[in-house]
């Protein structure tokens, strides 16, 4: 018989993460609301670089994903892990290192992103010093989690813990691989991958950031807090086992569905599509397991705001995980990609699944942390309805907007011309939807404010319990599990083996897809005319990255007649071999820019950047007038050239020494061109480099001697295009 | 016909077959595993979150009851 041990759960760390969740939730979503308003009211960009859409859009996504959901995840994990394993966290020091480290990283993100220090890779925008900090903090969290598991007093690891383990291991893997870059300065780096390979690695990461940052940890929270709130066990524990293994095994394969009809080789696209469709099964297994947990308890849902939030969260999970595979079908994606449909989809997940699950958890947690009851159930109910209404006002207009844009882009007249040849016409049609979306966002943020009042009042009226005393028998190693080897119960008793198997399940998909892409050179046919960027163009490209232009402009003409008519020759994988990082983009609020080189005179770009309305009346693109006055930083050119050469870009020996001279010469040429367009400009301004880059885009294959690779890169979609 | 479809959809070649078999194997393995588990133990595991561990909130200090 083991002795009964008395120990204390650490509530302080839970409280710290919980308040951080509330704070960053308000910040992240308010920034999102500002960005949403800028899309129909461009003056809200304030004509300042730091508040312009291209820079605050990544601030919004990072704040919501890593600050709000990240802190929410840690809140729930630190609360539930201790109780499920009947032990205090392995190390208080690691817990607090996790808290301060993570939140300082977020502060660093909030400072660097508006400053334009970005890699431009979606949800991985932070520059290399912060990336290293993320890896260190994440390892601290993982050690703390695994340490806690190893000294637990409960033999069985509950299903929530499995999801936490998969999260810890996979996020580390994804983050490290996708962030591989060579620094060219303290806050400038170039991805070690280029073009197609960079795109594949990025969306292997981006897709699985959704899977293993926004989904698996929250599924763990669902499996803990939903039974807690409903006061009944999960519907089927068997189903949860199948849910877990099938989900983590399949999820990792599906990344390429973000790149359908792009220059990515067809076999990878098809593989991504097939696995995306299969993903419906485990996702819905999990959703049904959640909803059926409430069997016989639906009367509680009427009264308890916590359950209301959780039910909507799980339902939103179900909707998003059915919609995701639908969007991954190539023919649907042909219409939906680059439109607001994607925005609607991700917000069903973010506002519904992550948001509502977090709110439900916080409303459940605060009365327990502060040993009191919720200050106002009525106010929580108001929050629920306002939040739900906000979500509807967000998502529905975005669907309308997405389908409208997709159809307008593809519409031909009976004579065979594009009906809406001017891209701006299609954007302007969407503005009422953008306004409605802002109404939805305002409602959602208003709900959060109600929650903050309620949680604050709850905390004020109660008495915080820093530690909760508990008792449990020690888990003696002498009492080895008696169950036969290879039963699941045995596996759960062996956390290290479990972790290794979970990692293997996650690795398989990545290996099958990514390794051939990196090793088999025939996947990216070479095109003779494709040359590295000139020094001035390179600086211009880095300004394009800094200003977040990729947030609204793709550089990937898909092989559809509607796109080749509008933009020109479709994009080939061989055209991007020197692009560190790739800039294909995922949204077209403005037109694609891959073939913009040579389309307009230099002076057009100059005037357009200064005031987009001067060249495109009604344009919602923000002014970028600081580019006309800010001086170009030529001093960093040699370091940039050297770094890129190390990554395989064939700059000849000594190119770094002549780079500044070459850049000046090209700038003088552009100034002369501008003069013919009645524009007087200084050669040492940033706008000159940006014009050089824009005018270079997509022109290499038009050079004499270039052989467009039409066969190997894209086998067949041209014949079946919508 | 199935082989033909799997191998020739979008030119994925052997990858389609390998990944389908791999997935199918893992899925069936997990399914068999899960079905063979003993019900009593599963029920005990499922009840883990419900074990009493923290202070339950009182009703007496609810704001709306005060009002």
Identify the notable features of this structure and list them briefly.
heterodimer; A: 722 residues; mainly alpha; two-stranded antiparallel ribbon; 27 helices; 62% helix; globular; disordered C terminus; B: 67 residues; 4 helices; 61% helix
Rounded mean pLDDT score of chain A: 91
Strand content of chain B: under 5%
> What portion of the residues of chain A fall into strands of 2 or more residues?
under 5%
Instruction: Kindly report the oligomeric state of this protein.
Output: heterodimer
Instruction: Please tally the helical runs of chain A, counting DSSP H or I stretches of 4 or more residues.
Output: 27
Radius of gyration of chain B: 26 Å
Order of helices and strands of chain B: HHHH
The SS-based structural class of chain A is mainly alpha
How many strand units of chain B?
A: 0
**Cα-based radius of gyration of chain A, to the nearest Å:** 26 Å
Q: What proportion of the residues of chain B is helical, as a percent range?
A: 55-70%
Q: Total number of helical segments of chain B?
A: 4
Percent helix range of chain A: 55-70%
